[in-house]
Amino acid sequence: METITWHDFEKVELRAGTIIEAVDFPQARKPAYKVRVDFGPLGVKWSSAQITKHYTKEELIGRQILGVINFPEKQIANFMSEFLVTGLADDNGDIVLASIDKPVPNGSKLI
Predict the structure, then answer these.
(1) Integer Cα distance of 96 and 51 in angstroms
(2) pLDDT number for residue 15
(3) Given the DSSP bridges, would you call strands 44-49 and 33-38 parallel, antiparallel or unpaired?
(4) Region 100-111: what's the mean pLDDT?
(5) How far apart are CA 33 and CA 76, in angstroms?
(6) Please, which pLDDT band fits residue 96 given cuts at 50, 70 and 90?
(7) What's the burial of 83, exposed, middle or buried (CB within 10 Å: 0-12/13-18/19+)?
(8) DSSP string, 6-65
(9) In this structure, what is the dihedral angle of CA atoms 78, 52, 36, 42, given to the nearest 10 degrees?
(10) 3-class SS of residue 86
């Protein structure tokens, strides 16, 4: 494992956001949703997330997540992902969202 400095960590914009829309993404190679997330003063952004094993589109609405918002946009099939949804792999390799257990303002930075 590579060691990083506090300054390196501070460069990562890990921000809280609320999912406001989730739609199927049939063009993705692996099953995924497109999610639209409100990051408060930092705007509303779209991303692709391979989270279909553990979550329905309906239960994602209103859920707060952590996203990395300062990566460059990435093209996934015919879609431009504007941030990285964070999560962890379970025993089967399926993604479980990194989430927030109590409400915080959208746009709050992980510290």
Answers:
(1) 7
(2) 98
(3) antiparallel
(4) 96
(5) 12
(6) very high
(7) buried
(8) HHHHHHS-EEEEEEEEEEE-TTSSS--EEEEEE-GGG-EEEEEE--TTT--HHHHTT-EE
(9) -110
(10) coil
The residue assigned the tokens 């379970």 is 90
Reading the block at residue 32, the tokens are 């995924």
Report the first-to-last Cα separation within the chain, whole angstroms: 21
Angle at 81 between CA 41 and CA 3, to 5 degrees: 85
Q: What is the CA radius of gyration of the chain?
A: 14
The torsion region of residue 53 among left (phi > 0), alpha (psi -120 to 50) and beta comes to alpha
Residue-wise pLDDT for 31-83, tens only, equals 999 999 999 999 999 999 999 999 999 999 999 999 999 999 999 999 999 99
